């Protein structure tokens, strides 16, 4: 696969990417190389990665606990302290080797340490390959509120090697699939149709097209003033649902993709009520989602708590929740205002 050139960095694919990494290590002459991992990627991905790292520089591995619950400032402080104790300076490099949490948090850590050190993203999950590793967003959660603290910062490069996907569970693959569905519904319906038909899926092609779409959008709107908002489809309500399950002691946490899939179904329903998005397509999206993901029973008693979390969505303006809705596939409308009654109605529709 050919390299995709983002605004200030390249996205390389497969094994030949590591030669590009070796080249930049020689050119930049970093003082120390830090590799950020969690307990999963140190066991399953690090052994695949390290033979490809050609350097005579000191390599230090920093391990954090996995999971969205650890994507917070406390973890960042721990990483900053370790980098400091190990003599990190402005000429250090941080390599993020992991999924969305490692990628988001690692980019944020690098961007803030000594006002910014270089970092390289090497995503190891489908979700991080098609979404978190590209686009220049970094950040952490504030409590259960998603991505409240962060900044825009670009890596030196991104390396997407699908061999790492052999190390993740089917549930994680499905989590990343939700982001591909999002690209399909908002930008290129062929992606959605391929997943719907589920015949001879080429994961490399799906990843490449997803990254290509995100890059096209970000190049036009890097700071999310207009077009980039379409990448939030399904995420406005989905993030609130994800946060609610994260803070609920009596419920199993949802993956990001599971929550976003619910959000897409609900937001398609809202679209049908406000923008005349075809009802048969609402049913089609719901059927595809329920074919891939287990049905989650959203209890009516929990609706008010989910709505309360919506009020903290980082895209809100003047206390107003803003949704991305659809007129049709590949035909979107941003900054849509939705009454609470319709949001509740959409969750009830998902439950049917």
Features:
alpha/beta, nucleotide-binding, 14 helices, seven-stranded mixed beta sheet, metal-binding, Dehydroquinate synthase-like, alpha domain, two-stranded antiparallel ribbon, Rossmann fold, 2 domains, 352 residues
What does this 3D model show about the protein?
- Catalyzes the conversion of 3-deoxy-D-arabino-heptulosonate 7-phosphate (DAHP) to dehydroquinate (DHQ).
- Pfam families: DHQ_synthase, DHQS_C.
- This is 3-dehydroquinate synthase.
- There is one protein chain.
- The chain is α/β, with parallel strands linked by helices and about 350 residues long.
- The chain folds into 2 domains: about 5-165, Rossmann fold (3-Layer(aba) Sandwich); about 170-200 and about 220-350, Dehydroquinate synthase-like - alpha domain (Dehydroquinate synthase-like, alpha domain), CATH 1.20.1090.10.
- About 45% of the residues lie in helices and about 20% in strands.
- The protein is built from 14 helices and 11 strands.
- The chain has helices at about 15-30, 40-45, 45-50, 75-85, 100-110, 125-130, 170-185, 190-195, 205-220, 235-245, 255-275, 280-290, 305-310, 340-350, and strands at about 5, 10-15, 30-40, 60-65, 95-100, 120-125, 135-140, 145-150, 155-160, 325-330, 330-335.
- The chain has a 7-stranded mixed beta sheet, sandwiched between helices. A two-stranded antiparallel ribbon has the order 7-8. A two-stranded antiparallel ribbon has the order 10-11.
- A hairpin with a 2-residue loop joins β7 and β8 (about 145-150).
- α10 crosses α13 and α11 runs antiparallel to α12.
- The radius of gyration is 20 Å and the shape is globular.
- The mean pLDDT is about 95.
């Amino acid at each position: 696969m050919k390299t995709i050139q983002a605004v200030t960095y390249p996205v390389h694919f497969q094994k030949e990417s590591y030669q590009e990494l070796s080249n930049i290590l020689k050119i930049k002459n970093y003082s120390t190389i830090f590799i950020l991992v969690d307990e999963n990627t140190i066991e399953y991905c690090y052994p695949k990665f390290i033979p490809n790292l050609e350097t005579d520089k000191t390599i230090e591995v920093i391990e954090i606990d996995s999971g969205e619950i650890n994507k917070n400032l406390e973890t960042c402080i721990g990483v900053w302290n370790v980098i400091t104790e190990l003599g990190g300076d402005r000429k250090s490099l941080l390599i993020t080797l992991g999924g969305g949490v490692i990628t988001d948090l690692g980019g944020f850590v690098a961007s803030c340490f000594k006002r910014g050190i270089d970092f390289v993203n090497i995503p190891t999950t489908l979700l991080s390959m098609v979404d978190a590793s590209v686009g220049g967003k970094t950040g952490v959660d504030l409590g259960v509120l998603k991505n409240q603290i962060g900044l825009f910062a670009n890596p030196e490069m991104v390396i997407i090697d699908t061999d790492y996907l052999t190390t993740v569970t089917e549930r994680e693959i499905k989590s990343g699939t939700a982001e591909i569905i999002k690209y399909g519904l908002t930008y290129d319906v062929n992606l959605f149709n391929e997943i719907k038909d589920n015949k001879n899926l080429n994961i490399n092609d799906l990843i490449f097209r997803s990254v290509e779409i995100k890059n096209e959008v970000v190049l036009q709107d890097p700071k999310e003033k207009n077009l980039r908002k379409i990448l939030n489809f399904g995420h406005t309500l989905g993030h609130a649902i994800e946060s609610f399950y994260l803070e609920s002691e009596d419920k199993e946490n949802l993956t990001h993709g599971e929550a976003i899939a619910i959000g897409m179904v609900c937001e398609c329903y809202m679209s049908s009520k406000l923008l005349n998005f075809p009802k048969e397509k609402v049913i089609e999206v719901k059927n595809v989602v329920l074919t891939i993901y287990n049905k989650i029973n959203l209890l009516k008693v929990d609706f008010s708590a989910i709505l309360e979390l919506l009020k903290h969505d980082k895209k809100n303006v003047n206390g107003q929740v803003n949704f991305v809705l659809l007129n049709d596939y590949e035909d979107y409308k941003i900054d849509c205002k939705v009454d609470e009654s319709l949001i509740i109605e959409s969750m009830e529709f998902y439950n049917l």
